[in-house]
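The authors assume throughout that readers already know how a fold can be written as discrete tokens. A single example would do more here than another paragraph of explanation. An entry of this sort, consisting of the sequence and the corresponding backbone structure tokens, reads as follows:
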Amino acid sequence: MKVMEQVPRADIAACFSWQYQPTTDTRLPDLYERAKASMWNASRDLPWETPVDVEALAEADGSRHVGLAAGDISGTALARWSRRNWIEFAMESQNWTLSQFLHGEQGALLAAGRLVETTPSLDAKIYAGIQAADEARHVEAFSRYLDTKLSGHYNVNHHLRTFMFDLLSDSRWDITFLGMQIMIEGLALAAFGLLYQTTTEPLLRKLLKLVRADEARHVAFGLTELQCVYPGLTSAELAERQEFALEAAIRLRDRLLRQEVWDRLGVPRAEGAEVLRRSSAHHAFQNSLFVKVLGNCERLGLLDFRSRWLREKLTQYGF
């Protein structure tokens, strides 16, 4: 993976707003006030002195990972795995998961900067600015955790990378909201919540608690803006947003197959991914992540527009 990559240039026009009078809609100003009151410092407000025994945590978590593939591993390399192999899988999965969080947070940082430039609403520009500060803090915190408490970073997952590149290459500012605030941030919010519930590591729990509070506001920001915009779109434009949401859901689902973990553990990527696809436990995990994301798509009117097109397509794809 390259150290630096440039997103293909999008034909994007910067947008000034000269309307500075207070708005009658207080939702974004209220979110902005909450964001200012909740600012935290990644260096000072997290207990970085906390020792983290990654192997002990993985040992305690090993049974859950064995259960993830139970009944679906016959005839594969995983059928010969010992408990030690599953502990290594748990350790690598934690590293991989937090690495993908880190990469997603950088994508959100770039998207927030894009929204400052392109969204027509001054209230939205101001909130996107404070979101950019949130995302910078998240990048700092996850990167430090990976470097000092785990064994470094995994490269960005291919499916996540290509989706973020396509998203940032799109000139439509509302697509930035849909792709980042609703899909990526919404999925991350659910993932942070599940990991917060399952991990016993106190430093990570504190980090996740702080990040979750920020992400909840970011998703609310996206919903607030798009609920104002979508009623004014044409049928053809809404259909395009449905198709975009479907493609986003498929890509973000496929990144959960942990392709990079299988590579590191010497398991053929396709074989490992297929084990997870067949796993009822993984399917339940996947759906628990997407339930709120799809609920927000419903609140935006995307699920049932065009005779329930998106709802039916998602069902066909196993969501």
In short: The chain has a mean pLDDT of 91. The CA atoms of residues 199 and 205 lie 7 Å apart.
